[in-house]
């Protein structure tokens, strides 16, 4: 029995201190909004509006985007995650909104990019929402055919006064993984 008690004490001492302390309390909404640029109230008053605002801000002809508008939609801890297949392996790339801006600004400056949701499935519970949003992307607004389609998975958070994007996780359609019929209009 003494050996068992000694083993428990040893294990407890090896655990990181943070694992022994209670989880941190989330920041109040006022702290979160203080870290973000000014928001357009109509962008964050509903699930549909925040999803629409994201598509609007990333879409446009070659040139700059309103990156402060994009930042205002994202919670300071949010991530943008692209996923797909590379060299036969499934990979994911995690970025903050600022890292996304840095990696896409040069591309958007040289080439038009128009993305729109063609079908959304929304699920909500209390202050959480999840949106499966099937998208089509074009280089020119009037292109007959998209150059890529895929699915965005939006995780959204309502803080009592506005909606925030917590994560956008997406994957482009490819020959081995076509978009399932239930996610098409």
What would you note in describing this structure?
The protein is α+β, with helices and mostly antiparallel strands. It has a single domain (32-183), classed as Nuclear Transport Factor 2, Chain: A (Roll). Helices cover 30% and strands 35% of the residues. The radius of gyration is 21 Å and the shape is globular. The N and C termini lie far apart (65 Å).
Brief descriptors of the model:
single chain; 185 residues; alpha+beta; Nuclear Transport Factor 2, Chain: A; six-stranded mixed sheet; 6 helices; globular; disordered N terminus
Layout of helices and strands:
Blueprint (H helix, E strand, L loop, with lengths): L1 H13 L2 H4 L8 H6 L12 H12 L8 H7 E13 L2 E7 L1 H14 L3 E12 L2 E11 L9 E11 L4 E10 L13
Write the CATH fold name.
Nuclear Transport Factor 2, Chain: A
Q: Tally of extended strands?
A: 6
Taking all Cα atoms into account, the compactness measure Rg is 21 Å
The percent of residues in helical segments reads 25-40%
CATH class, please?
Alpha Beta
Lateral arrangement of strands in the main beta sheet: 2-1-6-5-4-3
Largest sheet: number of strands, sense, barrel closure: 6 strands, mixed
Percent of sequence in beta strands: 25-35%
Structural class: alpha+beta
CATH architecture: Roll
Total domains: 1
Question: Quick one: overall form?
Answer: globular
């Amino acid at each position: 029995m003494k050996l068992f008690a000694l083993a428990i004490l040893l294990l407890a001492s090896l655990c990181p201190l943070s694992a022994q302390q209670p989880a941190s309390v989330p920041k109040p909404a006022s702290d979160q909004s203080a870290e973000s640029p000014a928001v357009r109230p109509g962008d964050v008053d509903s699930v549909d509006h925040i999803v629409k605002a994201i598509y609007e801000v990333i879409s446009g002809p070659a040139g700059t985007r309103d990156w402060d508008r994009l930042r205002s939609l994202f919670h300071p801890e949010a991530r943008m995650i692209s996923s797909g297949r590379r060299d036969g392996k499934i990979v994911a790339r995690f970025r903050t909104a600022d890292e996304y801006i840095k990696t896409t600004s040069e591309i958007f400056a040289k080439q038009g990019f128009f993305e729109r949701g063609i079908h959304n499935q929304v699920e909500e519970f209390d202050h959480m929402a999840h949106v499966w949003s099937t998208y089509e992307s074009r280089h020119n607004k009037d292109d007959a055919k998209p150059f890529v389609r895929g699915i965005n998975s939006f995780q959204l958070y309502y803080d009592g006064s506005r909606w925030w994007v917590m994560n956008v996780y997406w994957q482009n359609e490819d020959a081995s993984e076509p978009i399932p019929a239930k996610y098409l209009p």
